[in-house]
Amino acid sequence: MNTQTKLLLLALATTLAMGCGIKKGVHQKVLNELTSTQLELDETRGERDELLGDRKKLRSDKEQLTSDKASLSDSLDSTSKAEAEASARAAKLAADMQATEAELLELRKQRVASDKRLAAFRVLTAKFKSLVDTGKLKVVFRQGQMVLELPSGVLFSSGQAKLSSGGEAALSEVLDVLKNFTDRRFLIAGHTDNIPVKSRKFRNNWLLSTARAVSVVLYMTDSAGFPAGKLAAAGYGEFAPVSDNTSPEGRAQNRRIEIILVPDLSELPGLNAE
Predict the structure, then answer these.
(1) 202-239 burial string, b = 16+ CB within 10 Å, else e?
(2) What are the distances in angstroms from CA 274 to CA 156, 222, 264, 265?
(3) pLDDT per residue over 100-134, tens digit each?
(4) Which of 83, 171, 207, 236 is 20 to 30 Å from 66 at the Cα level?
(5) Number of other CB atoms surrounding residue 156 within 10 Å
(6) What are 261's strand-pairing partners?
(7) Which CA distances in Å does 186 have to 109, 153, 221, 233?
(8) By CB neighbour count within 10 A (0-12 exposed, 13-18 middle, 19+ buried), where does 265 fall?
(9) In the chain, what are the domain boundaries?
(10) What is the CATH number of domain 128-267?
(11) pTM here?
């Protein structure tokens, strides 16, 4: 029998005792039991409320633990992601450093090759100083190539492709220096101005410029002893001017023979000569 039931029975017994005229002592005893039962009920209610509070707190603690677990999981995921990103950045940095080192090495090779070509250019300029000073020759560095420019007027008569006696003499002075570079390859290029050629032998400036280049090549092989396999001839006509064709001075500069020192591919980084 629970406390609530006992309390109800005692209350009923008290009511009956009062109605039936039960003795005062008996009545007092019932009241005492009723009071004691009420106290037990109050205590039970207190314990129940405390249990309910504990239950509520446990539920709250459970929810907090669930939330903390979720937060911890998110934090671990975030940490793992951050570690992966850091690892990827480190790998990229290492790759970039390696690429940079390779680029620096390539730049150093290019610098060495450039310095070597520049040194050769200075040597040639010094050796050709007398010809340069008299205007018979110009030494230039164009598109990474060393170029010796000889005015066509010094080598050929107007509209002709055969070397003049004065032209052979001027060319011989140049070739005496170039003999020190017979291990190099040379491209002989003929150029004209844009005035149409007046010759039955040559239909246009292209043919004239090519014939002049061939004449120089033949003189280099036949008279100066240059290896034929190291030489090539090309005619550009009026299509590669170095000056404006609107003035006599400009046209004179465009009428020229170029002796181009072909770069040795072994000197160029990343390339191998065959």
Answers:
(1) beebbbbbbbbbbbbbebbeeeeebeeeebebbbbbbe
(2) 36, 27, 10, 8
(3) 888 888 888 878 877 876 787 787 778 888 888 88
(4) 83
(5) 23
(6) 146, 186
(7) 24, 21, 12, 9
(8) exposed
(9) 3-71, 128-267
(10) 3.30.1330.60
(11) 0.57
Say how many CA atoms lie within 13 Å of 127 toward its Cβ: 16
Torsion over CA of 80, 84, 85 and 91, rounded to 10 degrees? 160
For residues 59-69, b (16+ Cβ closer than 10 Å) or e, as one string? Answer: eeeeeeeeeee
273: left (phi over 0), alpha (psi -120 to 50) or beta: beta
Give the 3-state DSSP-derived string for the chain, with helices as H, strands as E and coil as C.
Answer: CCHHHHHHHHHHHHHHHHHHCCCHHHHHHHHHHHHHHHHHHHHHHHHHHHHHHHHHHHHHHHHHHHHHHHHHHHHHHHHHHHHHHHHHHHHHHHHHHHHHHHHHHHHHHHHHHHHHHHHHHHHHHHHCHHHHHCCCCEEEEECCEEEEEEEHHHHECCCCCCECHHHHHHHHHHHHHHHHHCCCEEEEEEECCCCCCCCCCCCCHHHHHHHHHHHHHHHHHHCCCCCHHHEEEEECCCCCCCCCCCCHHHHHHHCEEEEEEECCHHHCCCCCCC
Tokens of 129: 């100083």
Q: Which residues of the chain have pLDDT under 70?
A: 1-24, 26-27, 30-31, 117, 264-274
Residue 187 main-chain phi, psi, to 5 deg: -110, 125
The per-residue pLDDT for range 47-75, each reduced to its tens digit, is: 788 888 888 888 888 888 888 888 887 87
